[in-house]
Amino acid sequence: MQHKVQVALLSLSGALAWADTPPEPERRVYVTQRATQAPVLDGRLDDPAWQAVAWSGDFVQREPTEGKPPTQQTQFKVLYDDDAIYFAFQAFDDPGQLSNLLARRDRFPGDWIEINIDSYADRRTGFSFTLSLSGTRGDEFISNDGDRWDGNWDPIWSGATHVDEQGWTAEARIPLSQLRFSSAPEQTWGLQVQRLIFKQNERSTWQTIPKAASGWVSRFGELRGIQGVKPKRRLELLPYAVAKADKAQAAGNPFRDGTASSLTGGLDGKFGVSSSLTTDLTVNPDFGQVEADPSEVNLTAFETFFQERRPFFVEGSDIFDLPLAPAITGGHFTSDRLFYSRRIGGRPPYSPSLEDHEYADQPQNTSILGAAKLSGKTPGGLSVGVLESLTSRESAPTFRGGRYDRESVAPLINNFVGRLQQDYRAGDTQVGLMFTALHRSDDLEPRAYLTRQAYAGGFDFSHYLGDRDYRLEGNLLASTVRGDARAITDVQTSSARYFQRPDNTSADLDPTRTDLGGHAGSLRLTRTVNNSGFRFQTGAAWRSPGFEINDLGFMRRADELNQFGWAAYQWRNPFSIFRRLQINANEWFDWDFSGQLLRKAVNTNGHAMFLNNYRVGGGVTWQAESISNTELRGGPSSRWPGVLFYDTYVGTDERKRLSGVVGFDGRHGDESSESLRRYWTEATYRPTNALTFAVSPSYALSRRTLQYIDTRAFEGDPRYVFGRLDQRTLALTVRADLSLTPNLTVQYYGAPFVSSGRYDELKRITDPRARAFTDRYANYAPGQLSASAAGIGFDENRDGVTDYSIDAPNFDVREFNSTLVVRWEYRPGSQLYVVWSQARSDDLVRQGSHDLGQGLRDVFRASARDVFLIKLSRWLSL
Fold first, then answer.
1. Could you give the C-alpha distances from 474 to 67, 97, 123, 765, in angstroms and in order?
2. DSSP secondary-structure letter at 500?
3. Kindly report the CA angle at 338 between 332 and 341, in degrees rounded to 5?
4. Cβ contact 263:241 at 8 Å
5. How far apart are CA 195 and CA 90, in angstroms?
6. pTM of this prediction?
7. What is 292-303 written as a DSSP string?
8. Distance between CA atoms of 394 and 124, rounded to whole angstroms?
9. pLDDT one-digit tens code per residue, 583-641
10. Are 505 and 594 in contact (CB under 8 A)?
């Protein structure tokens, strides 16, 4: 999707180095006609149907140099009938210099032609269809006027290509059922056509859109002449069957003693409620071919944000996406969002408590009984999104003392998400509302640990100022959660807020309350265009102490106010040795609601691409001495030394058969408080046009003087136990893609991961906000510590009796996840999947060995869990 990312950046930034940018180009028009007979799609342009319409061409270069004539011209024709719209292309070139690369769908390999259609005619959303010379198809849903490209939208369409003495030709057929448009007797649609000449890394467009202009879809040319077509109220069904074999063995575990098999089925469907609204539904969905999340060792108090990969939730997800503060600067708060679809069907909240030689067959996720999604956009500019899902009760079989039993681990849950967005001023102003609701059944014991209801919602807006030179955006949100006192106490004491902190003046812990509410919001001003090349964004965000959305959304920290700023100077046209160049600066300030300044930081970074398409970049961030409300996990706030972060990378031309990038990043804390060095590389090798190998190894060395281990009590006072952590991590990702045809592909993904952590110099926090770093803690003397296989005992008063103890903190994490997928689209929309996934883990050794080579050998010796799947689906259009 790299070429779409470039378009989004250029459209959003709209920044040029040249002050003499030409005036707004004239909007081009193509007038099509109805086909008396549909052309035959063979990639050749000798079908008589094409004689009814004229060619349009005169493309203009967009990359690398805006406004110049392209090195090779392109022309196209358009026809339509009651069922589809047809495109014909002549891409002039030397046939001996074409790039005929094969890849799986949505990879956009080699030379390609792309069609963008704004059939809504709303100047904000569009449908993109890309056809490579090899026949590989790519498709994306465009939203936010080109700011977002959703590659998980997979419509049913077809195309063919042919090489001739003038270059190459192509034909495409896009069924009208795959587009959304009004019922007007005569249609005027937005149209853009792009071409990539691979050998030049050159992009040209039919409709000129200046790089200095904000927006993409709003500046399309026009497609006219479509008359008498009616929107299709389509009904598409995708029934599927899945045969599964799960093979796993573990000594003594009765649930891992061989192979279990099953045969299941399900149904996906689409129904056109109206010309502009579509209902998607899924019954007993299967996500067996979805790639595993990357391995990690998370030693923080906060969960990791993972991208959604499940097709039902990814497709059309743009309308349900409401980030709390999507700042260009980045930052921990930019992942917060009102709806996080990974909550639906996630891991059960409970697992059985087990002793030695006790076992449980813990479900990996809660089953989604069914889900439905209504989405679309009306001719009046109203975007609608409604999602409803139901996840089942879950229980885990257990084996204790020679007896089998079952234990409840997840209740029945109903999830609802509603979203409305209205366009004004031809899309230059947008106002939206969003609401989420979660209801858990009360039949799970102990039910007091979970909230019963969770509601959140609010409004957002986006407004262009002047001639789209500035954009003002913001949102205002509120939330409430309800449940038993224990459940609400858990919410108050969670890592998102830590109401129990002894020095917390923002909020008080109330163990009797049965509900919790709060508010949040953000305001951002962005300079979207300036001919001098200068852009900026400034803004602020907040989340009150009681704001809570983690039942159906994602948020790391409440009780925080953030101010952020970003500025950039960009050269988007080639000059000197550069193809393009950008220099950025960022700043951040964070406070809590008591007015305490928590963090201040500044950053500068730069990124360049040279005329030979090599690239280089890097940056430096300085974070001054900070205050943390979370490092002591519910203890008082603490002072932390300043930290210098740095990173750099160098990459080669990605078009070469062998290409890659190498990088280095790290950090250094004041007063030798911490250090990190991480080395990484990514290499891609393409021995043939159909086969690609990619490997991404990384190696990290880190040391932190104060790493939290646990909290214990001694003589009525808490003891915050920390240690010096020496950690080493080796990670590797291997991918292989073989495209036998555009519709038959084989993909392999493998990811071994080894991380080892060793603690020494154990200490307790004595004065967490002392001015001098070494005055904030006291080391335990060797005579105060006693180690055993079970853990470490502490004799703080040296009376020969263990006062408190902790589990052994050292760790060795060894994991391997792999997936092999054969995908065959045996007819349009109908697919056969053959999947083999394997997972290995070996985390029984907790000694912090630091022998990563041995760790890799051990993980491949560990017992494997193999899952084999055969999935057959059949697309039916009724």
1. 35, 49, 21, 41
2. T
3. 95
4. yes
5. 11
6. 0.88
7. PPPP----SSSP
8. 43
9. 999 999 999 999 999 999 999 999 999 999 999 999 999 999 999 999 999 999 999 99
10. yes
